[in-house]
Write a structure and sequence with these properties.
The chain has helices at residues 10-35, 50-57, 73-79, 83-90, 124-138, 156-168, 215-230, 261-266, 270-280, 286-309; strands at residues 65-69, 114-118, 144-149, 172-178, 181-182, 185-186, 207-211, 236-241. It is α/β, with parallel strands linked by helices. It has a single domain (10-245, 257-308), classed as Thiamin diphosphate (ThDP)-binding fold, Pyr/PP domains (Rossmann fold, 3-Layer(aba) Sandwich), CATH 3.40.50.970. Helix 1 packs across helix 2 (50-57). The longest helix is centred in the N-terminal third of the chain and has 26 residues, at 10-35.
């Protein structure tokens, strides 16, 4: 059972568990690739936050769109990006999702509704408002979701986006992944309110707080707000309480964390929560779980080895994809 007492179908649970395991395995390998100097620039991992992207993506329908932060590898996979497209892009290869030009912080694939991860904090919010306005004007019935961290809730783009979306009742869900830390600063030192969701009242829209470690709970709560948006009743602010198990980026060991905090959150690993629930309901056993995990680990290893042999884009590619040609 979930917090609201409604368990998802066994196959849906299985799909969610598999996708979270894929994201976890990919992120762990990406960290290794960075340390091997096979990933240029920087990289930000979402290990520990998998239930957020997977739970939300399960709500979306064909034609819906999404924007997210630079901690967006998991969101890309949850939306349907292939492991090959992701890993090749991470290594700057021509066969990557963005032909090797986006890298870790700019995963994009409009064909699956992913309008892009953004390196600038909060930049994805007004983009999502624009996408929602497009849906409204074209009367497609689609919605847009935008992920952001609690730190982005303190910048102008956040307030401007919520204000405009509320005035026009646009079909957009603002989803705050509150992992307690904006880079290296704990949320309480930068934000005067306990819950980001209370700020929804300033714009006359619903604001809810959700357990971001529970994929089923995320699905149910976001689904309700998505249905509301599809009915033309406007946006909502959804705060997912979550936690990143790794540091902010690259080799950050997170010394700013209080002693014991990580260990407490590890007990609420989103993968373990769903796994244990499925075992309790007779839908999974330990052997099946290990076989699934090992299968995914092998897949990631195979994809990475493939990506290593893929060519980099030629120099001439610098002059391609600069302008849109319809």
């Amino acid at each position: 059972m979930t917090q609201n007492g409604i368990a998802l179908p066994a196959q849906m649970r299985q799909d969610m568990l598999k996708k979270m395991l894929e994201i976890r395995a990919a992120e762990e390998r990406i960290q290794g690739l960075f340390l091997e100097n096979l990933v240029r620039g920087t990289t930000h991992l979402c290990i520990g936050q998998e239930a957020c992207s997977v739970g939300v993506a399960a709500v979306l329908q064909p034609g819906d769109t999404m924007t997210c932060t630079y901690r967006g590898h998991g969101h890309a996979l949850a939306m349907g990006m292939t492991m090959k497209a992701l890993m090749a892009e991470m290594m700057g290869k021509a066969s990557g999702a963005c032909k090797g030009k986006g890298g870790s912080m700019h995963m994009t694939d409009a064909s699956i509704g992913l309008l892009g991860a953004n390196a600038i904090v909060g930049a994805q919010l007004p983009i999502a408002v624009g996408a929602a306005l497009t849906s409204r004007l074209k009367k497609t019935g689609n919605i847009t979701v935008t992920f952001f961290g609690e730190g982005a809730a303190n910048i102008g783009a956040f307030h401007e986006s919520l204000n405009l979306a509320a005035i026009w009742k646009l079909p957009v869900l603002f989803i705050c992944e509150n992992n307690l830390y904006g880079e290296y600063s704990v949320w309480s030192k930068t934000t005067p309110v306990r819950d980001i969701a209370v700020r929804a009242s300033s714009y006359g829209i619903p604001g809810i707080v959700v357990d971001g470690q529970d994929a089923e709970c995320v699905y149910h709560e976001v689904s309700a707000m998505a249905e509301r948006a599809r009915r033309g009743e406007g946006p909502a602010l959804i705060e997912l309480k979550t936690y990143r198990f790794r540091g902010h980026s690259r080799t950050d060991q997170a010394p700013y964390r209080p002693k014991g905090e990580l260990e407490e959150w590890l007990k609420r690993d989103p993968i373990l929560i769903l796994k244990e629930r499925m075992i309790a309901d007779g839908q999974l056993d330990e052997t099946e779980f290990e076989e699934l995990r090992e299968s995914i680990d092998r897949q990631v290893v195979e994809v990475v080895e493939w990506a290593k042999t893929e060519p980099y884009p030629p120099v001439e590619a610098l002059y391609e994809d600069i302008y849109y040609e319809g």
